[in-house]
Amino acid sequence: MNCDQADTAVVFFDPQNDVLNPTGKNWGAVGASVTENKTVENMLRIFSAARAAKFNVFTSPHYFFPTDCTWKFNGPLETDEFLAGMFARRGALSLEEFNGFGADWLEAFKPFIDDGETVVVSPHKVFGPQTNDLVLCNCANATCARSCSVACSPICA
């Protein structure tokens, strides 16, 4: 595989406590897969490799804000996540009670995500491409790492 920093980026979705930490609200559903597939360890390897090779890194968090309860559409997964308080934030601009909670980055990822180089794009809310507003870059290739054990395909703007 030929990768060039000029047209290739690494993309992470949901590198958050609610799916990757044993105390997370979604651990019961994904924990066995995350453990068996060494998801956290492999994501750390990808973060490190991207940094060493100077590839651009992007991440899209999953957040639910209090105003999201007014949605007129929803899938069963999003309904369950919202009701369980997964990825809950007090507001779009509020970090009150954020550090260490479910919507926060996994602690091991913070040195990479908070490095001043990683681009944190607008959060996504719905599982699927219908409302995900990821505009990453004008790239030909993207390597994608999804924290849940869901098949992931390259994403290019």
Architecture overview:
This protein has a single domain, classed as Isochorismatase-like (Rossmann fold), CATH 3.40.50. The longest helix is centred in the first third of the chain and has 15 residues. The protein is of the alpha/beta class. A four-stranded parallel beta sheet has the order 3-2-1-4, with helices on one face. It is built from five helices and four strands; from the N terminus they run βαααβααββ.
Q: Name the strands of the widest sheet in spatial order.
A: 3-2-1-4
Q: Spell out the CATH superfamily.
A: Isochorismatase-like
Average predicted confidence as pLDDT: 78
Rg is 15 Å
Top keywords for this entry?
157 residues, alpha/beta, Rossmann fold, 4-stranded parallel beta sheet, 5 helices, 4 strands, 27% helix, globular, disordered C terminus
List the helices and strands and how they pair.
Elements: E1 8-13, H1 17-20, H2 27-36, H3 39-53, E2 56-60, H4 76-84, H5 110-113, E3 119-120, E4 141-146
Parallel strand pairs: 1-2, 1-4, 2-3
